[in-house]
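thread from #wetlab-drylab

HS: before we spend reagent money on co-crystallization trials with EPZ, can we at least see a predicted complex? here's what I'd submit
DV: go for it
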Amino acid sequence: MDKLLINGGNALNGELRISGAKNAALPILAGALLSETPVTIGNIPHLHDITTTMELLGRMGVQLTVDEKMNIEVDSSTIDKYEAPYELVKTMRASILVLGPLLSRFGQAYVSLPGGCAIGTRPVDIHLDSLIKMGADIKVESGYIHATAKKLKGCRLVLDKITVTGTENLLMAATLAEGVTIIENAAKEPEVSDLAYFLNKMGAKISGIGTDILEIEGVEKLGVENLHYDIMPDRIETGTYLVAAAITRGKIKVKDTSPDILDAVLDKLKEAGAKITAGENWIELDMEGRQAKAVSLRTAPYPAFPTDMQAQFTALNSVAEGVGIITETVFENRFMHVQELQRMGANIQLESNTAICTGSEALTAAPMMATDLRASASLVLAALVAEGETLVDRIYHIDRGYVHIEEKLAQLGASIRRIPR
Ligand code: EPZ
């Protein structure tokens, strides 16, 4: 397994481009299954999860054409299988996103149940119960979801919990259902809106985008000739690199992104003492050489502070001035990074779903092991300031969510290199 070798102590400086959002690209690639005509999707990030999704669609008989700029043309006219096998789903839970499109357009889907993962049990009960309400026949046998539906029927769905991929699956299913579907308590994450804009470009009739009540009027079919759609910027990648600048007391400018999709994160960075300026598609953070001040936060669904940025702020608090209290309300086990940070000397006390961080002057390098995507990013951030040389193992977790992380950080002046297995 690849490892990352990091020498701490360099303040990050410079500019870098942000890639397309992983969590918008995954539902949009699945949504392309709904189109009768080929559709080209641009600004796709070069990530392992994207390769997995392309393999998943390819095995269904979908034709994928990738050009040198990583634009992907998806042509589902040759689809002949409606299955998401366990061997792929176990490596990427988001494979569940093919369920809604397959059921809605082809009336059938055979999808492996996505297991839990390091951060939680990750159930999909809301996805399944809601599709049953729309008229699907769903049986779960030997770890697979067997779903069939002559024609899904629109109805009013009130989701028990705010679920991002749950909202996305139901949104896609509703586009070709008979009649009108109302999704209440819908997730408002920008990636959900990006999917909705994409579906409308294909001819769907979705209103209420960006609110917690989505109304979808079912249509006969979807597909527009020569459609090209570019994925939105990755707000979590943006936030992660801004925290990298804050934790190393540096100054960076991130481009090809937007300040409007991570307000809660920018507010917390300002509270930590960062000077932030922004334009339409760029953000600049300058710590002016200062140590960050500890911040307290609670994760919650958008527009509140995103759970996918919690681990990164736990790392920042570990070397900040003062005490910061971080509460995780979305997932039941998303503090896996804490014990690794404690091995570097971080003073963090865990009490149920709260981490009480008392900033240390400095952390010391120690061999680390990544456990999940965002936790591993927080270990890299800590290693950027730890005294000495840190070796982070199992970085395949990081490669799922960050395009060429060592190249982007090295470009900003970090002393970091990948040790191939
Ligand atoms: C999406 O996961 C993201 N993944 C996650 O990003 C992100 O952390 C999460 O949303 C929250 O923002 C993708 O978009 C591919 P949820 P998702 O359904 O949709 C419970 C990353 O780092 N729930 O919004 O799987 C669930 O247990 C990943 O890129 C049910 O109870 O998360 C959780 O407590 C990690 N039943 C809460 O809802 C259901 O049927 C939110 O989960 C569905 C969810």
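DV: The mean pLDDT is 96.
HS: ok that's useful, forwarding to the group
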